[in-house]
Amino acid sequence: MMKEKHTVKVNIFGSEYPIKSEADPEYVKRVAKYVDRKMREISDKVDIRSTSKVAILAALNITDELFREKADKDKTFAEVEDRTAELAEWLKKALRTP
Questions:
Q1: How far apart are CA 9 and CA 6, in angstroms?
Q2: What are the DSSP E strand ranges found in the chain?
Q3: Model pTM?
Q4: Alpha-carbon distance 98 to 95, whole Å?
């Protein structure tokens, strides 16, 4: 069953964009607001007049955040797997002991 698509108008870095998505409209607005905030942060720090260059730098910044979060999640998952294996081994030994 296909979800209904909604069109949400968002403003990013001074331009309005109609975004058609199956996602919740409030979620789309939050994502757009985040992108807008990142672009404005870049624009405030670096004197760049090209919107496309600001967008590329913001995309790189957001992608870096994503990759770091994924690496942290993967590390945590690996630690949980290791600890789970250790506990399973401990339980196996404990249950064999009379």
A1: 10
A2: 6-12, 15-21
A3: 0.80
A4: 8
> Which residue, chain included where needed, has tokens 């990142």?
38
Of 33, 53, 29, 34, the residue nearest 43 (C-alpha): 53
Owner of token pair 């409209």: 25
Show me where the domains of the chain are located.
Answer: 6-96
The token duo for 44 is: 């405030």
Token pair of 32, please?
């757009």
Residue type, 13: F
| Residues 29-88 pLDDT 10s | 999 999 999 999 999 999 998 999 999 999 999 999 999 999 999 999 999 999 999 999
With contact defined as beta carbons under 8 Å apart, do 59 and 35 qualify? no
